[in-house]
Known about the structure:
The chain has helices at about 1-5, 45, 50-70, 75-100, 105-150, 150-160, 160-175, 175-190, 190-215, 215-225, 230-270, 275-285, 290-305, 310-335, 345-355, 360-385. The protein has about 375 residues and is mainly alpha-helical.
Amino acid sequence: MDKIRQPVPGAQPRVRFDLPVEAAGTTSGAPEPTDHEPAAAGSMFRHPIYFGFMGTVGVGIALFLSYILANTESLLLWIVTALFIALGLDPVVRWLERRKVPRPLGIVLVLGALLGLVAIFFATLIPTIVEQTTQLVTKAPGWINDFLNSNFFRQLDVEYHVLDTINEQVAKFFQNAQAVGGIFGGVLGVGTTIANALFGTLIVLVLSLYFLASMPGIKKWGYRLAPRSRRARVEELSEEITRGVGNYVIGQVCVAALNASFAFILMTILNVPYSVLLAFIVALLAFIPLVGGMLAAVVVIAVSLTGGWQTALIYAICYIAYLQFEAYFVSPRVMQKAVAVPGAVAVISVIAGGSLLGVLGALIAIPTAAAVMLLVREVFISRQDKN
Length: 387
């Protein structure tokens, strides 16, 4: 055993990138003595060329950073998505750590369970979803023809000449060479879009793994950036924010799963067509706060109309009743350890996040608003109360 433990001749120890050791004997909060007096207020007027040059440099740096952000938007979205996923999985890993499971093993178990669920989803639901999507696309022209031949549309066409307007707009569209070229360019770019989506998914998974594995180290480095006198307070607030975001992600997954399960059971009872595909759509839309449930209701009700207005009416009544039950009973209990945001702030943050970053922005809007409100309450308002 001693020979096995001996290092291999010529082998070098791995260089570790550790934190610098804190200086001994330093007192927290003690200001360091300075030998220089603060610059006079009129120094800017005594050195106008220097301040003008530094102002120009500052504007140039700002423009350069703006250019970098504009050209790395996809990378930033991948990083934010990966960090969001890592924060959502971190509470599970820490729960395993409290049960004496080493963190590396906990990460492997969590990622293994996640990949297993994804594999089961692809193996069972994807073929059914593809089949039902094909059927939906095949039957859609028949539904359109039935609508065009209905008495309602004929009366509408007699009064407003809808068909003539549609034919005129279609003719103008195909006469426009730029529009037609855009269609073919979009068709040819589908392969590139799919390849970019797969590459982005791979990058997000890898970054999520790295963030999850190095989460304690990342936090430790971040806390060291704060002044020594306020480091404990910064650590306390940061832990509360990350804990709330992680619990929010897990809670939103549970709420979406319950929502999709109820919708699937209800559609199965009412014989709504394409129930598996629609349940998958409901689960995706349920991740969007506030408006996701109503969007899912509109989609399913529109499809259930093919089975008769009675089916659509029963589904609408039952599903909207479930949304009320979810809002007042399910979500408060699932989200009790997550973030708490007032309704008006939640609506504004979701709209702003969706406008800036799309669906991802709507997903992270509420945790971000909760973090901002926590910082305002614990830092700004606390400081104002002391003055």
